[in-house]
Amino acid sequence: MNKHTRRAAAALALIGTGLAAAACTSGSDDDSTLTVCTNVPFAPFEYKDGDEYVGFDMDLMNRLADRLDQTVEVVEISFESISSGEALNAGTCDIAAAGLSITEERQDAMGMSQAYYRADQALVVPTGSAVASLDDLSGLQVAVQSGSTGEAYANDNAEQYGFEVRAFESMGDIASALSTGAVGASIADLATWNEMIETASDLQLVQTIETAEHYGFAVQKDDTELLDEVNTMLDEIFADGTYAELYEKWIGEPYTGDLDQ
Q: In angstroms, how far is CA 50 from the centroid of its own chain?
């Protein structure tokens, strides 16, 4: 089933939903465009620099598009619709690149690529906060991104540490909520918090939470052809040194040759 037929069928099945319109309008009707679902800001993986989408994930998607003789078209959409598989399986885009941790639930809902990045969670608070660790969160509201593994971790541990989970659509919304005092802390991916607090003097990272997650790219559940292309692209850039160059460019430190180190 080609891209146009797949999108049309998905759109007809979803008439009356918000994703139906996106499925009909995202990307072109031919195979010259690779449509990429993402959610920004999620630096250093995806964010906007002026009118351009840039980041680690975006460089990898451009590499994939070059391999397929296509051009990238970004579809910005809620992270929850990406992480659930709803957007992909509605035909809203061809692939999701959104700092997406590989989980069993997501593998059931979508086709997930091999891992390309090791991720952990982090606890971030306003500068000057008395919170120094998870043990200090009792009675506070803790911000998370909807549909994220940070939200799952927070929900699993809220009762133990006595905090209330409050979900937001984007990392930008979370940063604003912390800065204004609307919430007392946040649990979200370490790499993006490291990037964001470099330019946010009113926020500080107080604890790394080792969850040993791995990011992957996602495609429609039955799109094994595109998934094979993604995995082949990743194999090639791991082997030829391109991955190490991009890792150092965006993560700011040398790649050790092992995702788990």
A: 20
Q: Are residues 139 and 235 in the same domain?
A: no
Query: Strand 141-145 vs strand 111-112: parallel, antiparallel, or unpaired?
Result: unpaired
Residues 46 and 145 grouped into a single domain: no
Q: Based on the domain organization, do 226 and 105 belong to the same domain?
A: yes
Confidence at residue 261, expressed as pLDDT on a 0 to 100 scale:
65
CA distance 31 to 166: 40
Same domain, yes or no: 129 and 220? no
pLDDT above 60 (res 13): no
CATH label of the domain that carries residue 181: 3.40.190.10
Query: DSSP string spanning 28-87?
Result: -SSSSEEEEEE-S-BTTTBEEETTEEESHHHHHHHHHHHHTT-EEEEEE--HHHHHTSHH
Q: Which residue has the higher pLDDT, 25 or 182?
A: 182
**What's the half-sphere exposure (Cβ side, CA atoms, 13 Å) at 261?**
5
The model's pTM is: 0.86
